[in-house]
């Protein structure tokens, strides 16, 4: 239920809020690459990451996207960002959902190959944003071990941002990350028997 307040009261609240935010902005003057994690059961983890890719391109930044697990089907984001071959490296390295592949050994092998590819961009100072899409899935299923990849993330160029998506983010990654968002599931069209839609899920 909306709360009704007078214009005068509203102005007083906003004045205090502005003073608080101005102070916080002045205090937050460090500039460096950050690690962002999008996790949780709700929709929007990868979509948020690709929004950041678009934002980075608007600032003239060079971006690498490595997709774990995904890759068996073409997606709208892959088709779109491949229109910018000079600015975006987009590599869908997976072979499909884990329930489709039915081959744990092969899934592990593919994820390790994908991480070897990701490592190249985590070591390249020309890339200011690296998206590791569905990496959390690979970690939660044990296809990759956090202990094997943590150092690569920590030793990346100082200015480089990393976005990691997927449900089931491990506690160690959440502890390391600078920003963590958990997407909550309220409703999903799939529960009503509606299939994945182009432009929405794919």
Short description:
Helix content is 42%, strand content 14%.
Rg over CA atoms, rounded to whole Å, is 20 Å
> Number of helical runs?
8
User: What is the approximate shape?
Assistant: globular
The biggest beta sheet is recorded as: 6 strands, parallel
Oligomer: single chain
**pLDDT average, as an integer?**
89
| Poorly predicted spans | none
Strand content: 5-15%
Spatially, the strands of the biggest sheet line up as 3-2-4-5-1-6
Structural class: alpha/beta
Gap between N and C termini: 36 Å
Order of helices and strands: HEHEHEHHEHHEHE
- Estimated helix fraction: 40-55%
DSSP strand count: 6
Structural notes for this entry:
42% of the residues lie in helices and 14% in strands. The chain has 202 residues and is of the alpha/beta class. Strands 3-2-4-5-1-6 form a six-stranded parallel sheet, sandwiched between helices. β2, α3 and β3 form a beta-alpha-beta unit. The radius of gyration is 20 Å and the shape is globular. The relative contact order is 0.20.
